[in-house]
Amino acid sequence: MISIDLSDKTALVMGVANARSLGWAIAEKLLEAGCRVGFSYQGERLKPELDKLLTDKVGTWTLQADATSEDDLTALFAKVREEFGTLDYLVHSIGFAPREAMEGRFIDTTPADWNTAMSVSAYTLVSIARHAEPLLRDGSSIVSLTYHASQQVVPKYNVMGVAKAALEAATRYLASEMGAAGVRVNSISAGPMRTIAARSIPGFGGMYDKAAKAAPLGRNATPEEVGKLALFLLSDLGSGVTGEVVYVDAGAHIMTMKLD
Ligand code: NAP
Q1: How does pLDDT run along the chain (260 residues), one tens digit per residue?
Q2: Residue from 93, 151, 164, 168 to probe ligand 1 pocket by mutation (most atoms less than 8 Å from CB)
Q3: What domains appear along the chain, each with residue ranges and CATH number?
Q4: Which of the following is catalytic: 157, 173, 208, 247?
Q5: What's the gap in Å between 96 CA and the centre of ligand 1?
Q6: Is 208 labeled as catalytic in the residue annotation?
Q7: Which of 42, 115, 152 to mutate to test the pocket of ligand 1 (most atoms within 8 A of CB)?
Q8: How far is the CA of 95 from the centre of ligand 1 (A)?
Q9: Could you tell me which residues are beta bridge partners of residue 96?
Q10: 1 CA to middle of ligand 1, Å?
């Protein structure tokens, strides 16, 4: 029997808004395995929800940090150093594009909306990895969350699809540079899941149902399955895997169409 004991490991999870967040599904698996976990959240409005989730989770801590703010990241990683000394696992579960950019035509994307989507959803992986680097050690691992609209056109995903393509490319460049220190960097491509971020995608409900029908497994993957894949990629179980985009979507992305 293989059991995972992460009681001598530390993790930072960035991007838990509530119990439905994919970041929370990942954190739950890390906590179940005994890992010590710190959390960052974007705005004070999210703190009560996070505090509620963490009431019975021993040894956890939280700090506000807007991932696009260099000052916030400096303070966050100073806190990680103070709490943990070193960092084994880093979870980037952050994404945002203005709703207007997803309602209209892709061709009409404004420079401001392009920059916002790219900066929040892709560049933050790079800046967070840079801030974390001094605390990472041989065997440390970074995981982010992406979506298949980076590879194929998904209606209304628009600039977010481009931002996810940038995130996946950044994953490979970071993996190539950080590998020499024994640090792995991967991205999980999750199928559609009902979260707050998903609600900002016009027509998400219809897409959710279609993806389930198209998938070989005849259903959508679950947040818990994202958590299990993250546990594999972050921990020593995934020790030979880096620079990859690994899908957890019940197989939906392999299909072009399905006959009834
Ligand atoms: P979620 O619960 O809304 O999580 C997204 C998180 O990103 C929120 O906590 C949000 O905080 C945070 N965030 C946004 N801008 C930020 C910033 N500047 N600094 C720090 N945090 C910021 O939704 P989710 O679906 O779990 O999203 C997590 C990741 O999974 C995203 O990268 C998303 O694209 C990806 N993903 C989701 C799906 C899906 O169907 N749900 C599928 C594939 C990939 P606020 O609430 O304050 O904005």
Answers
A1: 778 999 999 999 999 999 999 999 999 999 999 999 999 999 999 899 999 999 999 999 999 999 999 999 999 999 999 999 999 999 999 999 999 999 999 999 999 999 999 999 999 999 999 999 999 999 999 999 999 999 999 999 999 999 999 999 999 999 999 999 999 999 999 999 999 999 888 889 999 999 999 999 999 999 999 999 999 999 999 999 999 999 999 999 999 877 76
A2: 93
A3: 10-251 (3.40.50.720)
A4: 157
A5: 7
A6: no
A7: 42
A8: 4
A9: none
A10: 35
Angle between helices 223-234 and 22-32 (to 10 degrees): 60
The verdict on whether 173 is a catalytic residue reads no
